[in-house]
Specification:
Blueprint lengths: L9 H20 L3 H9 L20 H7 L4 E5 L11 H5 L5 E6 L2 E7 L5 E5 L2 E2 L18 E7 L13 E7 L9 E11 L4 E16 L2 E23 L3 E3 L5 E3 L3 E24 L2 E21 L1
Length: 302
């Protein structure tokens, strides 16, 4: 019986061994030292996923709202509670392109879209009646309660009629906007140098949601208080007209100075309840109350 390697050439068995010896010798001499170091510096690791988390769901982002809408719409979204740095909604909506506001005593009150009046104002997509009429008085609502503002610059059949220049929809927070318990207190002090006063701006909100045998339930309550003193000085005159004997003197027949001062107090409360028994059905109830008091005095020197 022959040996398994009988008849094979000696070189057939010696070549693999000689190659291994040569590689070992080269590695010992440092020829493959760089490759060895590289292997140590970059060990194999498992792929890692990069997760980017926003402060609001993508459906609430201003960019997505504008992209998905059939109308010409601009939106601004608060990244957290009380993060609109304004006293009232009229000041906040002025940040939207194409919206202008008229200011009186250092505060916005009248809102225009592309310079036109005739604006329909909604609260959470619904008509809202106030003592001023069939519209929301934007200057009466504190900005701390806002979740977002949608400004529609063109009309469609699903919008409530009346907005010749456009429609402004004010959206407030709801408990399902948050993942769980949320409690926020914002406080600031504004220095009014002309009125020589330090004025408070305080808002708070508490919200929570629960998983129950009958579905998800959420509740939210918010409160806001803003007080500020104001002082404004105005100089006025009229167009020059002929005066004196035979119209020999041309000039304004009246000129003067107005000294305006006062105190504004703005309080508001809102509540929202939500119930989602399943993924296809949702019930909600919400309400808001606002109170605005303006005490002012105007002195004329004519």
């Amino acid at each position: 019986m022959k040996h398994p390697h009988q008849g094979a050439r000696p070189t057939d068995l010696q070549q693999p061994f000689s190659l291994k010896v040569m590689i070992a010798a080269l590695a010992g001499a440092g020829v493959f030292g760089g490759a060895g170091a590289f292997a140590q510096e970059a060990p194999a690791t498992e792929p890692q996923a990069i997760v980017v988390t926003g402060v609001r769901a993508s459906a609430q982002s201003a960019e997505k709202i504008k992209k998905d809408s059939d109308q010409i719409v601009d939106s601004i979204v608060a990244d957290d509670i009380g993060k609109f740095p304004d006293n009232n909604v009229a000041d906040t909506v002025a940040r939207v392109p194409g919206v202008q506001v008229l200011r009186t005593t250092s505060e916005a009150n009248t809102v225009l879209i592309h310079g036109l009046p005739g604006i329909e104002t909604l609260l959470n997509g619904r008509d809202y009646f106030t003592t001023f009429g069939r519209f929301v008085q934007l200057a009466d609502i504190p900005s701390a309660m806002l979740q977002r503002i949608d400004v529609y610059k063109s009309q469609s059949a699903d919008l409530i009629e009346g907005g010749i220049a456009g429609t402004i929809d004010i959206r407030t927070n709801r408990p399902f906007d948050f993942k769980g318990f949320k409690a926020v207190v914002n406080a600031e002090m504004d220095n009014e140098d002309k009125a020589r006063s330090n004025d408070p701006n305080v808002s708070t909100m508490i919200s929570n949601r629960w998983k129950t045998p009958i579905g998800d339930i959420g509740a939210l309550f918010g409160l806001s208080y803003v007080k500020n003193k104001f002082h404004e000085e105005r100089a006025f005159d009229v167009a020059p007209t002929p005066n004196g004997p035979n119209g020999s003197v041309v000039g304004p027949f009246v000129m003067g100075i107005e000294d305006i001062g006062g105190t504004r107090t703005r309080t508001a409360e809102n509540i929202a309840l939500q119930w989602r028994p399943n993924s296809d059905l949702q019930f909600f109830a919400e309400g808001m109350s606002s109170h605005y008091l303006n005490k002012s005095e105007t002195d004329f020197f004519v």
